[in-house]
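Known limitations

Structure tokens in this collection are predictions and should be treated as such. Users comparing against experimental data should check residue numbering before alignment. To illustrate the layout, the record for Alcohol dehydrogenase is reproduced below. The input appears on top and the generated tokens appear beneath it.
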Amino acid sequence: MSTTTALLLREINGPFSLEQISLDAIRNDEALVEIHATGICHTDLSCANGTLPASAPAVLGHEGAGVIKEVGADITDLKPGDKVLLSFAHCGTCEQCTSGHPAYCYSFVPWNFGGKRPDGSAALNLDGSQNKKALYSSFFGQSSFARLAIAHRSSLVKVGDDNDLALFAPLGCGLQTGAGAILNTLNVQPGKTVAIFGVGSVGMSAVMAAKLRGAKEIIAVDLQQDRLDLAKTLGATATILGSDADIVSKMQEISPPNGVNYALDCTGVPAVIETMIKCLGTRGRAASVGAPSPGKTVDVDVFAQLIHGREYVGCCEGDAVPSKLIPFLIEQHAQGKYPIEKLITYYDVKDFEQAISDTKSGKALKAVLKWTS
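Generated tokens:
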């Protein structure tokens, strides 16, 4: 049983600490990955504070990037030394997985939020003694807030030897989600209008994806003017402060006669979602990627939905096939069309407290922890 350094959460709503933990031996469908960088996602923080389901002690982290050290017997397409990004876990055999929608795997919740392997065992433990304490682990098939991660094969996405692991780490969840919501779930068409509510890193990725799709109007909505200013440099054609009392009418002015073709909520705030839906024009389509705590609801005028033919859907992980979308986004970056470096602030892992604080305050759009200097 080997050991590694990890960001350990000893109790829900408690602090993280850098501690030594023990790793179980990898299974046939797993790889041992030396983590070089991990993005901090709001899902990590929402699990840590109890907003989303998790338990403690835990090792979270689900935007890992690193180099394979060892592979299980069932993994034949990867080898030690390969660079990989880590994304969500999925079974690969259910109807959703086999039809190209692994983010809606029937086992998504237990495999990503269950805190254990699919067989119920713990990949990580607090120590290596006979009285070892199982940790909440296998988070999104990886638990990559650690120098070494045991990753399920479905989470592994091979990337080129020349790819910058720290730069591309956030593609595993947040940036993939924003781009995929535009490209897959909403399937934004050229010449149409798009409104994006909340331009953190997920929303900024959506802005860039909408530009890739050739949207005529890309309208960013946020409470922070500096974020709106950045969104303009990434492709937004118009911006609206989220505190504006007249958002719906402004949307209709920008996208006549009665609203936008597409809208995306990245906030998870019910009141914002309600406003977003009202901004839809005839036969408009809206989606949510921002995750509120379970049980939150929104009020919808059913008659308005009916008479205008509006749609409102949920979107998990951008409805992405990570092995396809992630390489596509890396290629767009290489062509200068997806400049995610403008979103990222890097931190040495020893400065994790500052990285978390900056993420919570909004100072950092996307914080990435570096495990190597």
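For this record: The domain at 2-172+343-370 is CATH 3.90.180.10 (Quinone Oxidoreductase; Chain A, domain 1). The chain has two domains: 2-172+343-370, 178-317. Please report discrepancies through the issue tracker.
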